[in-house]
Specification:
Structural class of chain A: mainly beta
Shape of chain A: globular
Distance between the termini of chain B: 37 Å
Largest sheet of chain A: 6 strands, mixed
Mean pLDDT of chain B: 95
Order of helices and strands of chain A: EEEEEEEEEEE
Low-confidence stretches of chain A: none
Helix content of chain A: under 10%
Shape of chain B: globular
Largest interface: A-B, 20 and 23 residues
Oligomer: heterodimer
Strand content of chain A: over 45%
Distance between the termini of chain A: 41 Å
Low-confidence stretches of chain B: none
Radius of gyration of chain A: 13 Å
């Protein structure tokens, strides 16, 4: 059974204070690891897909990296508008469905 | 481009009533997923369809829940009879698995059963 564990559960940063969110996973035959952003009252918004260890993707202040056991979402010089819950998900084998972690709630204070 | 469309956005109903949630996936996508999100359990997959055919409904909590996809542009999730523990946000997502596995989510339906 696929498993995804995200840490920390919550993170408070000052504006400009860089940090990283962690996603540890267990999956048989990883086919993809996904990062989503979810704002209150909205559906998850797709950010990145990573397919293999060593891969990196960037978007504005966000950079996602992948190893064989975990993924990191690095946030560089965050702004208050980066405040949201960040979700990690994996899919493996022949599955089409995603298994989601419980998320990290990020708050960036001005 | 229009994203995934869900209706209604909010539904308040009394215990025992039938509830129908609706979803229009992104045009051209071949897979559709229904999720439920609560504070306690996070985001849970209920059922998914590929090319309008139900593939895995193991996440459907019990026989009170049913889902259909009569065509490529429409799906429903029905709860009959509804119970207070069904209160949650229900999301529909779609993907084009011929191009990638990422799913695109709708805005959700917040269901409250009193």
């Amino acid at each position: 059974e696929d498993q995804v564990t995200q840490s920390p559960e919550a993170l408070r940063l000052q504006e400009g204070e860089s940090s990283s969110l962690n996603c540890s996973y267990t999956v048989s035959g990883l086919r993809g690891l996904f990062w989503y952003r979810q704002d209150p009252g909205k559906g998850p918004e797709f950010l990145f897909t990573l397919y293999s260890a060593g891969e990196e993707k960037e978007k504005e202040r966000l950079k996602a990296t992948l190893t064989k056991k975990e993924s990191f979402l690095h946030i560089t010089a965050p702004k208050p508008e980066d405040s949201a819950t960040y979700l990690c998900a994996v899919t493996g084998g022949s599955a089409r469905q995603l298994t989601f972690g419980s998320g990290t709630q990020l708050t960036v204070l001005p | 481009d229009a994203g995934v469309i869900q209706s209604p956005r909010h539904e308040v109903t009394e215990m025992g009533q039938e509830v129908t949630l609706r979803c229009k996936p992104i045009s051209g996508h071949n897979s559709l997923f229904w999720y439920r999100q609560t504070m306690m359990r996070g985001l849970e997959l209920l059922i998914y369809f590929n090319n309008n055919v139900p593939i895995d409904d193991s996440g459907m909590p019990e026989d009170r829940f049913s889902a259909k996809m009569p065509n490529a542009s429409f799906s429903t999730l029905k709860i009959q009879p509804s119970e207070p523990r069904d209160s949650a946000v229900y999301f529909c997502a779609s993907s084009d698995t011929n191009r990638g596995m990422e799913q695109y989510f709708g805005p959700g339906t917040r269901l409250t059963v009193t």
